[in-house]
Amino acid sequence: MTRRLALLLAAVGLACDPLPPVRHEGVHVRVAPDPGLELCGGTLAHMDDFVARVSAEFGVDPPTGDDRFTYYWLDPDDFGRRTPCPDAVAGCALYDAVYSKAAPLDHELVHSVSFAYGVGPQLFVEGLARAYEGLEAWRSPQPERPRDVWKFVGANWIAPLDYDVAGAFTSYLIARFGLDEFLAMYAGLGLVAREGAIDRAFSRHFAVDLARAIDDFTADGGDCLHEHADPKLSECGAPEVAWDGEYVAEYRRLACDQEDAVGPYYGGDVVVMRSLVVPVEATYDIAVITDEPALAPALAISLFPCSQCGTDLAVTVGAGERVTARLGAGRYALRLHGSARRDARIGWALTRRPDVGER
Question: What sign for the dihedral angle of Cα 252, 256, 260, 265?
């Protein structure tokens, strides 16, 4: 999240405990973790990739050299005292600096990229970050929540904001009017733009007023869950699994120290990101196994369609399970889930079932 600039600067001045030095140097991100906090082997590469993809999406150059983002990964116990962030939040961003209780926390990296367009009202600042933050370590779509946009149009950085509402409305506007037009509208609004200014900006950039846009969102776009609305830039751009469209299987070690393992997020998760292209709509058997039954609850694979707000649904299969699912044609984010605290071995297989009439 972000705060009023004056409050942020004041908080920076009041922070009395030193921040840790940088220990990990990436192309676009430098990470400074507190002692005892260790990134999984692929996390820095993921953060670089994510910043590059979001920057390209937003039409700005990713930071390099001395302009790189500095990501402070800090112990939660004294987080609020050492940073500009309220203690209750997971993190906040102040231009090229991110302060976080978790790593990675891609939501805050979106903020740092979007500062190129200034700081708009809270509804859209947080909505834009929520719309592009990706899947984190979530295995399944989160429950649908109410979409009462009017309640948060006047959000003032102090009263609570429903990030799901902000993200869903922002995603809807981007899908309907285009990202370029949304960013142009966003850049013209100030930090504390009120309803009247937002309404005029909508009429100027979208050719509909705020009330009509909210009504249309409620009628047509409010039911799309975040995990389906988000473009999942890194997840859907991950290395593609090669297969023949009929059968693919893998058995591998899954551990935090591996170079493709991203985590530990909030402390316990590791994710490996792949993408998979399903060539034709069909029914598939999906099975996941492990030779360590005690670790089975921590192991799974998930498939999220890369199409946004379509009819295809996400599928999650835990270790020891076998499910049958109808998958539409297209690209999917295929992720392997495990524990950042324990090495494990996981196997998965995807097999196409012949449709009726096929041999």
Answer: positive
